[in-house]
Write a structure and sequence with these properties.
One of its GO terms (biological process) is glutaminyl-tRNAGln biosynthesis via transamidation. By secondary structure, the protein is of the alpha+beta class. It contains 16 helices and 17 strands.
């Protein structure tokens, strides 16, 4: 029998508020160490936390986006543990009564399979500070520095059911949550800055037997590392079990440089944290009016938009999925189509030439040098045969470089397509006269020579001759 992996993810996404969850300190990334940590974040005696309403609103928005239960009453608890970057000696989190209850997320795998992943809960909590182990030294030599700027930053921890059965499913699910939190605007999802971090609980078992002992892989901040860490952990556990050993419940770290997972500490249970309701914070009670106001401006969600693109524009599921990968791309596509351009042609260019150029320049589509109206203008010139698809690529590059709008570029560079049948015929006649041997080969049944003639005509016309007309006229003359 084959071992079956069982995987659940805990995703920590930083909420896009300007101030922290229990204090007025700023949350901006990149400030000098310890310049954005106030008395509340430092846990100084006598200070009291005050809940940030914006964090609650964003949690409610996420809950609605995954069709989850929104708790009318939730409670903050103290999670007690000692670590240098946790000044109070406890983290304020939620335990028994989280703000978001059970929901679900649909993922589409590479082979086209659709799978529904359960979300157990999503709860609000504060982030800890950051320990700086590398490149930090003091008067006593090598030291660990503590930066408490991040302490108190609002997090939404999203806990999945153990429904994932492979590293591919885990990464697809993580990407879906990442897409969703950015789509509804509750987080920037910047993994390099730590705004989106993933813990993976991994175990293996033989189908039909109870789940195995799990290990937790902590603080993974890239989808590529997540996939690799899970694969390594699955291999490690299978090897232990097949050698007759037992998997230890523990927390492990993925080391990308060494391409290995390493033990950090024995995995704690909930009772080790001595959770109890935080006496400084009242329960959070939400009425229907608050929930309605918080979710009133939620945009059309990606799954709904993907289905609409397929039905309204006749796009394939693949194209619709690419276009709804993020909200900015979907908006760009709709802006192009609104100009009256064929949806399939628009999709091809946005997911093809434009995506490649943006990727090469490391730009988001929102910062594209080619605007949606400009791309629409370019595609209209393909549709009305002013330029060919090949010439359009030159025009696109010129627009990207800032040379002007499509019509200006076409005019300035003399790129208008030749559609005059008489002019094309003259070129064809001259080329056939200059290449009698190839004409003889074609008429003797060597069909591949046809491509040679097309190439010669396009070369003669500097790529401006209408390809359809060239093919039709050539065929008429060669077969006549």
């Amino acid at each position: 029998m084959q071992w079956e992996p069982v995987i659940g993810l805990e995703i920590h996404t930083q909420l896009a508020t300007e101030s922290k969850i229990f204090s007025g300190a700023a949350t901006a990334f990149g400030a000098a160490p310890n310049t954005q940590a106030c008395a509340i974040d430092l846990g100084l005696p006598g200070v009291l936390p005050v809940l940030n309403t914006g964090a609650v609103q964003r949690a409610v928005q996420f809950g609605r986006a995954i069709a989850a239960e929104i708790a009318p009453r939730s409670v903050f608890a103290r999670k007690n543990y000692f670590y240098p970057d946790l000044p109070k000696g406890y983290q304020i989190s939620q335990y028994e009564l989280p703000i978001v209850g059970q929901g679900e997320v649909e993922i589409v795998l590479d082979d086209g399979r659709v799978k529904t992943i359960g979300v157990t809960r999503a709860h609000l909590e504060e982030d800890a500070g950051k320990s700086l182990h590398e490149d930090f030294s003091g008067p006593m030599g090598a030291m660990t520095g503590i930066d408490l700027n991040r302490a108190g930053t609002p997090l939404l921890e999203i806990v999945s059911e153990p429904d994932l059965r492979s590293s591919e499913e885990a990464v697809t699910y993580a990407r879906k949550i990442h897409q969703l939190v950015r789509w509804i605007g509750i987080s920037d999802g910047n993994m390099q800055e730590g705004s989106f971090r993933v813990d993976a609980n991994v175990s293996v078992h033989l189908p039909g037997t109870p789940f195995g002992t799990r290990a937790e892989l902590k603080n993974i901040n890239s989808f590529r590392f997540l996939q690799r860490a899970i694969e390594l952990e699955i291999e490690r556990q299978i090897e232990i079990l097949e050698d007759g050993g037992s998997v230890v419940q523990e927390t492990r770290l993925y080391d990308a440089d060494q391409d290995e997972t390493r033990s950090m500490r024995t995995k704690e249970e909930a009772n080790d944290y001595r959770y109890f309701p935080d006496p400084d914070l009242l329960p959070v009670e939400l009425d229907a009016a608050f929930i309605a106001a918080a979710t009133a401006d939620l945009p059309e969600l990606p799954d709904a938009m993907r289905h609409r693109f397929s039905e309204q524009f006749g796009l394939s599921d693949y194209d619709a999925a690419l276009l709804t990968a993020n909200r900015a791309t979907a908006s760009y596509f709709e802006a192009v189509v609104a100009e009256g351009v064929d949806p399939k042609l628009s999709a091809n260019w946005i997911t093809g030439a434009l995506a490649a150029a943006l990727n090469k320049a490391d730009l988001e589509i929102s910062a594209s040098p080619v605007t949606a109206p400009q791309l629409a203008g370019l595609l209209k010139r393909i549709e009305d045969n002013t330029i060919s698809g090949k010439i359009a690529k030159q025009v696109f590059e010129a627009i990207w470089a800032g040379d002007g709008d499509p019509d200006q570029v076409i005019e300035a560079k003399g790129l208008k397509q030749i559609t005059d049948s008489g002019a094309i015929e003259q070129m064809i006649d001259a080329i056939l006269a200059d290449n009698p041997q190839q004409v003889e080969q074609y008429r003797a049944g060597k069909q591949k020579v046809f491509g040679f003639f097309v190439g010669q005509v396009m070369k003669q016309s500097q790529g401006k001759a209408n390809p359809q007309q060239v093919n039709q006229l050539l065929k008429t003359k060669l077969d006549g």
